[in-house]
Design a protein that fits this description.
Layout (H helix, E strand, L loop, with lengths): L12 E4 L5 H12 L3 E6 L2 H13 L6 E5 L5 H14 L5 E4 L7 E3 L3 H16 L13 E3 L2 H26 L6 E5 L16 H20 L4 E6 L16 H12 L10 E3 L2 E3 L2
Parallel strand pairs: 1-2, 1-4, 2-3, 4-7, 7-8, 8-9
Antiparallel strand pairs: 5-6, 9-10
Helix pairs in contact: 1-7, 3-5, 5-6
The chain binds NADP nicotinamide-adenine-dinucleotide phosphate.
The site of NADP nicotinamide-adenine-dinucleotide phosphate has 32 residues, from helix 1 and helix 5.
C-alpha cells in the first residue's frame, strides 16, 4: 500500500493510548490510513516500538511515531506533553483507549463470554443481568488491588491524560476526544454490579466524564463509545468482532466533521444511552 500524501498545512495529529495491540493498534492503523499523523503510545517501550514496526507491514510507517505513555504515571504523561509541544505544537485528536479488566479468571475463560453476553443483552433488553445461570466452570476473581488498578487506569488515567493534553488540543481548529468506554458501564437503577464491578464502575465514570468535559469545552467534539465485543487480550479473545471492526467506531468519532455531535455515548456507530 502506498504511503499517504502529507499536506503540512492540513496535517492533523492524534494520540492513541494503549496502542501496542488490540483495538488501540487498529485505531492507529486506520487513522494513519486516513492521513492522520499518529503518536502511537504504549506503557512498554519494547511493545510500542514493535507495534510501530508492525505498521510498516501495512506500508504505513511514515505517519506514525512512538512515544512511551503509562497513563498511571504523571512523569510519563508530562513527557508526552513536552514531546508533542516541541515537535508538533498542538494536538487535534486524543483517543483514550488504554484499559484493563480488573479481573483474573481461573479455569474456563468462557465464563467471561457468558457474563458479558448476558450483561450486554440485558442493557438492550432491560432484563436483570446477573440472574442468568452460568454454564462455564471458570471462576472470576476481583481483588481489591485489581479493582483499584482498574479504576485508576480506565477512569483516572484517561482523566489525567485528557487534562494534561487539553492546552494542546485548545490550539487545534477542530479538537476531538474519544473515550473508549463499554456497554458494561451502562447505568441501571438499583443495581450494584457483583461481577466485573470495578470495570463497570470505571467505564460508567468515563462515560459520565465525557459528558461533563463536552459541556466544559463546547468547541470540542468529545464523545465516548463502546466499540462492541471484540476478540482481544482483555476478552481472552472471546468477542466475535475483530479488533479492526471494533476500531471503526472510535475512528469515526475521531474524524467527526466540525459541528458533529458532542457529549454522547455511542454503541458502535450509533448514538445510544448509557
Ligand atoms: N475488546 C472488547 O470487547 C472491548 C469492549 C468494550 C470496550 N473495550 C475497551 O477497549 C479498550 C481497548 O481494549 P482491547 O480490547 O484492545 O484490549 P487489549 O488488547 O487488552 O488492550 C489494552 C491496551 O491497554 C494498555 N494499557 C493497560 N494499562 C495501561 C496503562 N497503565 N498505560 C498505558 N496503556 C495501558 C495495554 O498495554 P499492555 O499491552 O502493556 O498491557 C494494551 O495496549 C479498553 O479500554 C477496553 O476496556 C474493549
Amino acid at each position: 500500500m502506498a504511503e499517504p500524501v502529507v499536506n503540512p498545512a492540513t496535517q492533523r495529529y492524534a494520540v492513541v493510548t494503549g496502542a501496542n495491540k488490540g483495538i488501540g493498534f487498529e485505531i492507529c492503523r486506520q487513522l494513519v490510513s486516513e492521513g492522520i499523523m499518529v503518536i502511537l503510545t504504549a506503557r512498554n517501550e519494547k511493545r510500542g516500538i514493535a507495534a510501530q514496526e508492525r505498521l510498516k507491514e501495512f506500508g504505513l510507517s511514515a505517519n506514525v511515531v512512538f512515544h512511551q505513555l503509562d497513563v498511571l504515571d504523571p512523569a510519563s504523561i508530562a513527557s508526552l506533553v513536552e514531546f508533542i509541544k516541541a515537535k508538533y505544537g498542538r494536538l487535534d485528536i486524543l483517543v483514550n483507549n488504554a484499559g484493563i479488566s480488573g479481573i483474573k479468571i481461573v479455569g474456563d475463560t468462557l465464563i467471561l463470554q457468558e457474563i458479558i453476553k448476558g450483561d450486554v443483552a440485558s442493557v438492550f433488553d432491560g432484563g436483570k443481568p446477573e440472574s442468568v445461570k452460568l454454564k462455564a466452570s471458570g471462576t472470576i476473581t476481583e481483588t481489591l488491588e485489581d479493582a483499584e488498578e482498574c479504576l485508576r487506569t480506565n477512569y483516572y488515567g484517561a482523566k489525567s491524560v485528557t487534562e494534561a493534553l487539553i492546552p494542546l488540543l485548545q490550539l487545534s481548529d477542530s479538537p476531538r476526544i474519544v473515550n473508549v468506554s463499554s456497554a458494561l458501564g451502562n447505568l441501571r437503577a438499583n443495581d450494584w454490579p457483583t461481577q466485573l464491578a470495578a470495570y463497570k464502575v470505571s467505564k460508567a465514570a468515563l462515560s459520565a466524564y465525557t459528558r461533563i468535559m463536552a459541556r466544559k469545552y463546547p468547541s470540542f467534539c468529545i464523545n465516548c463509545v463502546c466499540p462492541g465485543f471484540a476478540g482481544t487480550d482483555i476478552t481472552y479473545n472471546l468477542g466475535p468482532l475483530s479488533a479492526s471492526e471494533a476500531a471503526e467506531s472510535p475512528v469515526k468519532l475521531a474524524l467527526l466533521p466540525d459541528g458533529g455531535p458532542s457529549g454522547f455515548y455511542f454503541y458502535r456507530k450509533e448514538i445510544s444511552s448509557f
